[in-house]
Amino acid sequence: MATFLFDKIIFGPVKSRRLGVSLGINLLPSNRKICNFNCIYCECGWTHNSDASGKDLPSRKEVYDALDRKLSSMKKKNQGPDVITYAGNGEPTLHPEFPGIIDDSRILRDKYFPKARIAVLSNSTAISKPHIKKALLKVDQNILKLDSAFDLTVKIHNQPRVNVKVDKLIRDLNDFKGQLIIQTLFLRGKFKGKKIDNTTKEELNAWLKAINRIRPAEVMIYTISRDTPDGGELAKVPLAELKHIASLVNDLGIKTQVSG
Length: 260
Hints:
The radius of gyration is 18 Å and the shape is globular. By secondary structure, the chain is α/β, with parallel strands linked by helices. An eight-stranded mixed β-sheet has the order 1-2-3-4-5-6-9-11. It has a three-stranded antiparallel β-sheet with strand order 8-7-10, covered by helices on one side. The chain has helices spanning about 60-75, 100-110, 130-135, 150-155, 165-175, 200-215, 240-250, and strands at about 10-15, 20-25, 85, 115-120, 140-145, 180-185, 185-190, 195, 220, 235, 255-260. It is built from seven helices and eleven strands. The chain has a domain at about 10-185: TIM Barrel (Alpha-Beta Barrel).
C-alpha cells in the first residue's frame, strides 16, 4: 500500500489526531527513512538504512533557519500552532545535533509563539543516552513508544535494528520520573503469515504492569489510520476496544488519550 515521506524540513501545520494543530519538523533526509526500528505499521514505509551520519541530513543551522522563516510567516498571519512536533522520516533522536536543535527550537518558540508546546515523537531507543535524555526533558511533551511489554512482540511489531530488551527499556522510561508520555499502537492481523495481536489478555496485563511501573503523565492509545508498508493484512483495533484499554489505564490513576 502507499506510504509516504516528508519532503521538507518543515511540514504543515496539520491537524494531528493526538496533538492538535501541529507544525512538523523532519530532521532526516527528504528522500529516505532513517530509523533503528522497522515497524510493520509505519506510514513512512520500510527502513532500509539506520545510519544517521550521511551528508543528506539537514544541518542544525538549516533547521533553525527553516523554522525561523516558518514561524515568522505564521506570526504575520496570526496563525499559531498548538505544538511544534519533531517527527518526520524516522527517528529524530538519531540526528547528531538533536540536543542543540531542541535548544534552538525553544528559543524560536519563545520568540514567536511562547504558548506553543514542543513535542518529540520517539521510539525510545536512545533515552538511556544522557545527552538525549537531557534534551527530551527540556521539551513539553516527550512522547515515547512502548508497544508491548514482551520482547517477542516488540521484535515482531517494531523489528528493531538495535538490541532492545523491554525490561531495560521500562527501567529507562521509569527514570523519567513521570515527565513523559507513553504512546502505544494497538493492532492485530497477520504478518508473514502469522497472527499478531497486542490486545490479548496476556499482552494487556503485562503492558498495564509496565505502565504502572513507569507512571507516565499520560498514555496515548491509538491504532493504525493510514496505509502500512505490509499491505492489507493489518487491522485496526475498534475504537470501543481502545476506550476499554484506556479505562484500565485510568484505573491506575493515569490519564489517557484515545485515537481510533
